[in-house]
User: Fold this.
Amino acid sequence: MTVSASRAFSDETATGAPLAHVLRRTAAAARRFRERLSGAGGSAPGLSGRTGLLAPLLAIGAVLAAAGPADAQTGGTSSGYQPSMCQAIAMSLPGARFAAALPGPPAAPRITRTATDDRSVTITFVGHATFRIETPGGVVIVTDYSGPAGEGRVPDVATMNHAHSSHWTHAPDPRIEHVLPGWGSEGPADHHLVVGDVLIRNVPTDIRSWERGLELDGNSIFIFEVADLCIGHLGHLHQVLEDDHIALIGRLDVVMVAVDGTYTMSQEAVVQVVQRLRARIVLPMHYFSAWRLNEFLGDVRSELAIDIRSDPTMTVSLATLPREPTVVVLPGY
Assistant:
């Protein structure tokens, strides 16, 4: 089992990591500076008080990340840096281009595919904030893992967030090869690894805590790039996403979002996040009751299609994505 933690900023720059990673660390440092400034009588940043000035730099970093190799965290059968196919420039930046549009030799493929790859991904809602994702190449991932992992074999990858104990565990199954905490001990968590046919990366966000107050980078949005799909799990998101988040996230085809409206953020804020991400499939989670789920559905019904399923498992591929953005409700809680 590999428990991956964040790396020091100095280590990253010394090994020549992609500029996107360096700029992400720069963004975190800037947030910490603003927090210290707030304590000294300056303007308080809050959970959504970024200036947005970092977004162009982060967007440039997202482009340049695909331009060359680097020493980055990897796993499974691959080594070296695998550029993200989903890490697009934020749509709010005029004149920006996708990384794939830049001239130059294409990056060597590092994600492995099988001869019988049907390009379909299976997603099962285990409950609360845990989904079980099974890739065409047989990789099994569980999100916000606290112990339950659904039916089937032991997962290859478990992601965790620590806003509450129901989203992580001190004692993950030792047979899980890759355990990825969404927070770091020194600075933000920084994950970018390939396991079989899936690229896994994270985008840190801030959370609030009864014990710690504002915790910078205490949560991670985990993104799974597989079978030409971009699947995102927002974790225990406490803030509306801003331009620098969007630049680092890129395109999402499927998004898993907490819709409780209280422990994470208001229903109004959740709807704003869903609208900004514009994923084709929205999978609500962390809703606790049918009343709370229905409240969310009522808020988005005028803009999104609603598809309520009786089976907690669904299969999705690039070819079967709905033509219009759709909330797919899998039974759970």
User: Anything to note?
Assistant: Residues 2-78+86-99+119-329 form a domain with the Metallo-beta-lactamase; Chain A fold (CATH 3.60.15.10). The longest strand covers residues 213-226. The CA atoms of residues 61 and 308 lie 39 Å apart.
